[in-house]
Amino acid sequence: MKRLQIFILLLFISGSLCAQGVVVRREVEGDYLKITKTIPVWQKRHNFRFSIGSYSSVLDYYLSTDYYGNMSSFSDQVDSAGNYTTDRRFYGLYSLNYTYQPYRWFEVGGTLSFGATTQSRRQLETDAKIEDYNYYAVVVMPTVRFTYMNRGIVQLYSGISLGVAFGSKAPEFTGDCTLIGCSVGKKLFGFAELGAGVGGWSRVGIGYRFDIKGKK
Q: Which end of the chain is more exposed for a tag (fewer CB within 10 A), N or C?
C-alpha cells in the first residue's frame, strides 16, 4: 500500500514537470521505480502577435469627448433642435505585439494598439448629415507575459501592460491586464484571451514565434 502511494505521488510530480516542458521517463527495475528527467535546452525566441479586441469602458474613455456626460448649454440645445446624433460605430481595437522570450516562463516586449469610433449628427426630418464626430486612440505599452503551463503545443499565460494612450484626447496613462490566455500551435499559433483594461475583456489573434539560433 505504501509503495502504491509513493508511485501515485511520483506520477503526480512527473505530470507537473511535463507541463513545464520536462520529459519524464519511468522504468521499473525489479522492485524499484526509476525516474529519469530530461530537461530540454531552452532556445531564446522572438514572438510576434496580431489581435483584435472587444470594446471596453476604459477604451470608451479615449474614444469619446462626453464620457462623463454632455452638459450642453441652453443655446446649444436650441441650436440642435430638430437634429439627432447617431449611435457610435466601433471599428475595432487592433494590436501588434512583440516580445523577446529569454526563458520558458517569461517574455518582455511592447504592444501598439489602435482603435476608432465614428458617429454623425443628422437632421430629423430629411436625415441629411450635418457633421461627423470621429475619435481615435493610439496606445503604446511595454508588456510582460508569464507562462505557467507549457504542454506540447498548448500554453497558458497571463500578462500586464502599462503605457500611454493619445489621439483625440491629450496623452494619458493607461494599462491592460491579460487575466488568462491560451495559445495553440508551435511556430504559427492562434490565441484567445480574457482580460481587463484598454485592450477589452476579450481578444483573439494569431502569432508567429521562432527560436534565436546560437553561434556555433
A: C
Give the number of residues written for the chain.
216
CATH tag, 45-211 = 2.40.160.20
Q: Running along the chain, 216 residues long, what does each successive block of 10 average in pLDDT?
A: 49 46 57 62 90 89 62 48 81 95 95 92 82 91 96 94 92 95 96 94 96 69
**For residue 108, how many C-alpha atoms fall within 13 Å in the half-sphere facing its CB?**
2
Model pTM above 0.70 = yes
